Amino acid sequence: MARPRTEMIAKTRAKLIAAGRHAFGRIGYAEASMDDFTGEAGLTRGALYHHFGDKKGLLQAVLLEIDAEMTERLNKVSASAPTRWQGFVDECAAYIEMALEPEIQRIMFRDGPAVLGDISQWQNTPGCIAALSHSLDRLKADGEIIDIDTETAARLINGASSHMALWIANAEKPETVSKRAVAGFRTMLEGLRK
Amino acid sequence: MARPRTEMIAKTRAKLIAAGRHAFGRIGYAEASMDDFTGEAGLTRGALYHHFGDKKGLLQAVLLEIDAEMTERLNKVSASAPTRWQGFVDECAAYIEMALEPEIQRIMFRDGPAVLGDISQWQNTPGCIAALSHSLDRLKADGEIIDIDTETAARLINGASSHMALWIANAEKPETVSKRAVAGFRTMLEGLRK
DNA sequence: ATACCTACATACGTGGCGTATGTAATCGAG
DNA sequence: CTCGATTACATACGCCACGTATGTAGGTAT
């Protein structure tokens, strides 16, 4: 297994995903020319169409990669907190912070939904929502939060977080808005507690 | 005032906005050909570029119209409720319901942010957020809700609502998901109450 | 060893956006 | 009332970018 042949293929795939991710993150999906960013990666569109079918296919692959990274980061955050509730709050804060990163914001929250439809239909629940959902499940089992459907709560928090992030990122004074947003967000989370 | 000349101009503008709104709402911004939908309106792209500068300009005009309609609907809902709290809850429910309408969902929540950037920077706070904010202001003045920054709360609710709507709209069983979503949403709102 | 297939590159057609230009109707000045 | 200027569009053109069809070299299987 893992012959040199398949390794080369995996490398080209990775190159294309990386190139697309850079281009999509910087100038956006619509403005990114496939000839340009494949050329920068030392390839052509031929490779892209072979591996991903079309431009949307590459975007999907990029999204999968980013979602996996976000999920891992979220899991690390919640795992390294002293209490589960604290872990959950940290997780939410981390989610907002990630949504402030230009690449994630652009690809995950702007172009992704516009091109591929809502996040819900990308696959059976993306990882970053599943991570929030899982944390809520444990809190519920511990009796720390009120009786609420955890997936619904996860999606509510997901929606609220991403909007907070967009609000902050596009504000004239991001620091000021950030304080207001995080404070309000924490207040909302407290409402879930018993 | 209101000479026949200016009336004609207003009519062409209205025609273009209506045509664009239809096309954007049905097949999406990117897939909508300007030649097609201007032709259906009995005009050409020349008129569009004259009045709106470019394709994005038309989208902005469409968004302004939709936002105004949504604001009016929200204000009516909150005004016709027995109590202010009830008015606010109804308003939130109405917001989710509006977000379920395909045209609003597509233009306002998907293509709009992707093409023009986050809703926050379209203008100084769009009307539908201002409406929620206003309702919260009055509730706060009445001492019905906890101490929270009202604009932040309005944006939290706005974000949560739109995500709920997208979740519902794209679910396999919208009715089932709708019940879960609305129930969870109400629970979250109750957390704002004193 | 040879025939096939995979993984790309190259070449081409098409469609759609933006712009530059044309034109008819209207408005304002004298 | 007349004539120049401006407005409100339509027409024509160029360019870019996507997708597809085709070509090809290297690896794979038997």
From TrEMBL, chains A, B:
Transmembrane segments annotated in the record for this chain: none
GO molecular function term, any single one: DNA-binding transcription factor activity
Classification via InterPro entries: Homeodomain-like_sf (IPR009057), HTH-type_TetR-like_transc_reg (IPR050109), HTH_TetR (IPR001647), Rv0078-like_C (IPR049484)
Record-annotated DNA-binding residue ranges: 33-52
Record keywords, A-Z: DNA-binding
Domain HTH tetR-type stretches: 10-70
The keyword Chloroplast is annotated on this UniProt entry: no
A Pfam family the protein falls into: TetR_N
PANTHER family for this protein: HTH-TYPE TRANSCRIPTIONAL REGULATOR RUTR, HTH-TYPE TRANSCRIPTIONAL REGULATOR UIDR
Name of this protein: AcrR family transcriptional regulator
Organism: Phyllobacterium trifolii
Lineage: Bacteria, Pseudomonadati, Pseudomonadota, Alphaproteobacteria, Hyphomicrobiales
